Amino acid sequence: MKITKDKTLKKYLTGYNLRGTLPDFSSMNALEIIYVNNNTIEGPIPDFLGLLPNLRTLNLSYNRFNGSIPTSLENKNIELE
């Protein structure tokens, strides 16, 4: 999946059977909501998620992420699901 810079505010990728690692959304700095739940995404939770300036809702549930929550997400006022 190729991610390009745009003015997208929401990404709903729930149940798309996505596999592998999470694509880099860091150039999409207008993103406010990301739902990538119910897939088979694996690997560590990417640090760039906490660097998205407008992100307020993030759903990573029911995937195969491992490791700890990045420090960039720890102090943000984000609704984690």
UniProtKB/TrEMBL annotation:
Superkingdom: Eukaryota
A Pfam entry, by short name: LRR_1
InterPro entries, per the entry: Leu-rich_rpt, LRR_dom_sf
Protein name, as recorded: Uncharacterized protein
Species of origin: Sphenostylis stenocarpa
